[in-house]
Amino acid sequence: MKEKIKKIILVIFLILIGIAVVCIGIKQGLTTALTLLFSGIVALFAGINYFLWEDSRKATQGNLLLNLNRDFFFNEKLYKVRKAIDKEKPIFENKGGEFVESDVDAYLCFFDLIEYLIQNGILDERFAKDNFCDWAEDADDNQEIKDYINSLKQEYPREKYPTGSYQRFEAFVKRCCI
Known about the structure:
With 178 residues, this protein is mostly helical. It has helices spanning 2-28, 30-74, 76-86, 101-119, 125-141, 143-155, 165-176.
């Protein structure tokens, strides 16, 4: 809907420029009219470039989302961690699971990356929410992962490490999953 409104506003703007050019051309003379016409053409191309940029941005986000999906669903380490969380199996080796901290870090850092991309306007929030929210929420609900994040918070306090992976993971869960 927003796209249609933007296009309608652009068309109205261009029509108004055309009317202004004709009126000023009649009243002020050919040189002023040509200057305004040139300005109108520049404005038209700026508007067209904006819409092309928007389309290009969407295509880029689509490609990025495909790559993120591929990495998340076909990376063996992430897949195994995701399945253990999904099936409510033990996660860490010391709790009877099969994973070490770096495995869980990689999983949390995936969501850290997604939050970073959202914060910087590279990835649209709704795309991330639609594709990854359930998995992040499952991890956030997992007690072993909660305990691990709490240990990270004590070892790497927010004041000293403002961009820790657990912080953007939590931000992603709050933004998209709650």
